[in-house]
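Archive entry. Fields below.
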Amino acid sequence: MGKFPKVLQCLLKDQVITETQVWVPLLASDEMLGSVHTQEYLSNFITGKTDEKEQRRTGFTWSSGLVQRCRYETGGTVLAAQVALQRGLACSTAGGTHHAFPSYGSGFCLLNDLAVAAKHLLTESRIKRRILIVDLDVHQGDGTAFIFKDEPDVFTFSMHCGKNFPLRKQCSDLDVSLDDGMEDKEYLSTLQAHLPWLLDVFRPDLVLYDAGVDPHWEDELGRLRLTDQGLFERDQYVLKSVVKKGIPVATVIGGGYSRDVDRLALRHSIVHRAAAKVWKEYVT
Amino acid sequence: MDVSSDEADDWFMESLHMYKDLHVFQLEHPTKVIEWTSEKSVCVAGYSSPKNEILELLLPLKLYAGDKQGLCPERDFKVQHGGFCDEPVECLRHIFGKSNRCVVTSGHNSSKLQVWDLGEDDSDVIKRTGVINLERTSAEGRKIASGLTEDPSVLHGCQINDVQLIELASGKVLYAVGTDSLDAVSGLQFVNANEFVICANNGTLYVGDTRHPRIEQYALQASVTRSRWSFGLKTNLPQSDLASCTVSRLSSCGQVLLSDFRKMSSPVGEAQLNLQHSFPSSDFMTVTWAPALDNFLSVSGLDGTVLVFDTTRWTTDLKNPEPIFVHRGHHFSCEAKTDGTPLVVTTHVWHPWRPRTLLSAASDGSIHVWDWVDKENNSL
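PREDICTED_STRUCTURE:
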């Protein structure tokens, strides 16, 4: 996927951030991955023994480079979460692989980075933490919903288009299913109807935010009709709501599908630009 | 466990690699006709309720954006013109001739043909401009074909003995077939300005010439009882030499015959397709040749798929040929499975010049335009 390095490049080129703000992750360790994924799947995945049918469902053909990329990507989400706890706000230039289940990959997702990051933070701290996952990718975060269905300290909230993949939906703690063709205004007001009370009632210690750009009307797979401005206002709203309550937030870029990779990378950088604005206004 | 959702999700992921383009649209009512009215627009029409819409749809602009597809978000079909027909539409043809905005329709159980003007940019209404009253009511669909002369004309018939060529402007009968055959017409098509081919429901082919009433007949050697046949002609329209045409015939039990008009005594290719379901009704059988890919043939109407074959390697007596491509999109994105009847593809057509682009419609009202990836040549 050529879009990842381009996200960082356009943020530096546009001087939204400087090099000193860029942190580089480590590979997610077997132990970290093992808190979410089964040993059998990890072993097959890392050594390239997943079968053709399994690979078809993921949309990828296995390669060792793919495995490395996924492990760094997961490491990046873990790092963003850790930095967010230290500094208040951190953004990955990848992440959001929410269709990965414990024993199989699906929908371009091989390891569930949000789940691995959440589990890691739950277990590494001596104090009890509550984590809210806000998933605004146009596809339901089915893998994440499944992984945390019995975990009271992780709340999964997914707002997605009902008719998009996957047709077979899981149950998040809160699912908001949207109709095809929804535009900026109605989307934002639907979000505003849910996020504030969720923050007040669940009182998370950390928010992981999947800022998928596939609700955009140009997205090749998504069935909604948000504009660039709509995505920016969405991201700004989420980040402001969380930061104003003093809750740390880490973001991942989530899904986006377009043949024009440059345009797509620019769209993915919207959340970083919104974060830079919120940081200036509320944190510094 | 919801197996069908899972299968649909699996197919969706595979489709991202199988298709270069795939755009879907949901009509309010299903169509059994798709007829090109320009290189970017098609006409469809309802066949299932008393008041049926005729629509001219513009194909998604994204399809034509070439390398700039990433910049073109328009992937919806757009309704350009629409009108209402007072009867279910069995057959719809775009008429060749001076005005290229004319279509003719025939209805089920009807004794007339209706003539329509698709309208220009100044109006979005498809208007009925004339009715041709016929002597006989067709119990089933009356088949129609466009004449290929400058003055618009239409060839029509429900039985071989009532096939006529009618001049649209005057309603005058220009030609009538001179035979007593009561065989039901399955399809008809002009090969050039004068010569035409008719396929009967029983698979017999008739070849005629509007310059004389005599008609030649080519019956099937071993006819399959209780099978219905439809045909597809491979021609170089609008002026073909009959001898250079290949004809394919498809039966409701899945047999496909390929014949050459130079030697009709025996087929040049024959195949038996593997049928998943058997349908009591064979209203929707469609077999067509690709205009831009040599020897590629497509079949639909037997189930919820469209099958594409490369017939280059077909011999006589081929069992279960391997298709080059199977479009399962209708089967997997069937939104409304009503009354338990299985989904069936009602019709399909090839794009006139884009090699691997087809349109297909199904009984759930879906209409798809798709362009599959040629894996063998690795072209994307």
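CURATOR_NOTE: The longest strand of chain A covers residues 154-161.
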